[in-house]
Design brief:
The N and C termini lie far apart (61 Å). With 234 residues, this protein is α/β, with parallel strands linked by helices. It has helices spanning 8-11, 34-43, 63-67, 83-90, 101-112, 176-181; strands spanning 21-24, 48-51, 71-76, 95-98, 117-120, 134-137, 140-146, 150-161, 166-167, 183-194, 213-216. 19% of the residues lie in helices and 27% in strands. The chain has 6 helices and 11 strands. Strands 1, 2, 3, 4, 8, 9, 10 and 11 form an 8-stranded mixed beta sheet that branches. A 3-stranded antiparallel beta sheet has the order 5-7-6.
Amino acid sequence: MKKVYGSAAEALDGVLFDGMTIAAGGFGLCGIPELLLEAIKQAGTRDLTFASNNAGVDDFGIGILLQTKQVKKMMSSYVGENAEFMRQYLSGELELEFNPQGTLAERMRAGGCGIPGFYTKTGVGTQIAEGKEVKVFDGEEYILERGIFADLSIVKAWKADETGNLVFRKTARNFNPPAAMCGKVCVVEVEEIVPTGSLDPDHIHLPGVYVHRLIQGEHEKRIEKVTTRPREEA
């Protein structure tokens, strides 16, 4: 089965449709599938629901799709530094389903494992619990959270072999693996594709059984906020 494609547009060919749900990896500006997001922008697919920790910034990450009004709903834990995200939400142009970070990651992982729902204490007694089923275990209240089953997963990894076994680097490992797991189709962009068998099995973070399509590309290394201190005088 062919998994390696020549470009983001090729890898997404036949997969995109209006109104779909997409699980996207990334944490802040780390590990964002930027090439695939640009290809979605160019394809013009609309009324999208994104499950993602955040929406990047105004001109990077999912933010580029907010600018073109291609996103209908965000399932996120953090609005972050994205002014357009905030503006659309406050003006009622964008639906927003807030999730605690751990809950969002677990909802993706649960979907990838075929688990339709789970109970958690996180959010009990807050707005997060409104409208959700509450159950008592051992005298403690828990709320029901549903697993996320996306039409498409788009993620960014560091390395892959030709069968789609993935290795992530540092913070990029936070949301990318669970996002990859929960999509009916998973498309991955990587910095390097290596021959099959060259990755140490103990170093593989996500097995290729989850990955359907794969591209290699050049990526921008952005810093969300540059923080420096004055240079000490010699």
